[in-house]
Design brief:
single chain; TATA-Binding Protein
Length: about 120
């Protein structure tokens, strides 16, 4: 199973992060399949790759450390594919999501820690 993790800290309010996060993931070809106040799960839209390569994104918004100006989000991006090559589909989707988070104009990226 391919699995990539990342921790993002962004300058945004907690109230806006959930909707902005949904929009960002949808722009990366993901459907939101489960959402609560501090957790979001999205699955890659089927049709372009084999079923075993479809990527799932799980995001935990850390509200315990959130302030009015800063929010920390923990991402897990995974699929059932064996990561036999460095440039596999899951890795490419991880890089796409990471770039979309960094480029989002609705917040400022403060810090990124790749896992």
């Amino acid at each position: 199973m391919a699995r990539y993790t990342c921790l993002f800290t962004v300058a945004a309010s907690v109230g806006n992060v959930q909707s902005l996060l949904s929009e960002t993931l949808e722009s990366c070809n993901f459907d939101i399949i489960y959402e609560t106040g501090d957790y979001l799960m999205a699955r890659e839209v089927p049709g372009k790759v084999a079923f075993s390569k479809l990527v799932t994104v799980e995001v935990l918004v850390d509200k315990t450390l959130a302030t009015d100006r800063e929010v920390r989000m923990s991402f897990v991006i995974k699929n059932e594919e064996l990561p036999l090559q460095i440039n596999n589909h899951c890795r490419r989707m991880y890089e796409l999501v990471s770039q979309a988070i960094a480029d989002n104009r609705q917040w400022s990226l403060i810090d990124t820690v790749a896992g």
